[in-house]
Amino acid sequence: MNKDITHCLLCAQRIQAVISWRILLTKQFPPTICDRCMAQFEDSSCAFAIYKYNEAMKVYLHQYKFLQDIALAKVFRQQIHAHFRKERAIIIPIPMHPLKQIERTFSHVEELLKAACIPYIQLLEKTTTETQSTKNREQRIQVAPLFRLIAGRQVEYQDYLLFDDIKTTGTTLQHATTILLDAGAKNVRTFTLISG
């Protein structure tokens, strides 16, 4: 049975396969699932962090986020800039709920990107003021959708990269990824400053 597969074996959507010289010359197998379904599988090279969460990072995050020391956004600007300077995907920071942003006075994730002179756009808005840090793993996984698209914003069939300060269970990034993929993104990858 050598018939080419034209529809995704998981979601039955038409596969948008692009035949390139690279595919022809390297003798790759033709795709059997669509890009959207493939993006839902966790690849260790897709989720990346610069630092691990340790006591020093705990102190840094407390000072930066909760004591509102915005100058600390510059601490890791060289490392963030080095990682993102050649990035071709559209960078989207994980947003804060508007009420939380008023309370904290700034968006800590956006400030990290600003300090590193990294351009970004915001397509998402947070739907709840609840923080994930107060929940256990099971509660985080079962939470209602955390984000929605900002009214009037369009997601294009392009590559996107979600940026957050810390990843623990990955629930926040997964919720944001799902919203973007469902809205038409070609691919969504994630990157965090810290892995918890």
Automatic annotation (TrEMBL):
What PANTHER family does this protein's entry cite? DNA UTILIZATION PROTEIN YHGH
Q: Which family does it belong to?
A: Belongs to the ComF/GntX family.
CDD domains in UniProt: PRTases_typeI
Q: What protein is this chain from?
A: Competence protein
Among InterPro entries, the record links this protein to: ComF/GntX_DNA_util-trans, PRTase-like, PRTase_dom
**Gene3D superfamilies per record:** 3.40.50.2020
Q: Which domain of life is it from?
A: Bacteria
- Membrane-spanning residues: none
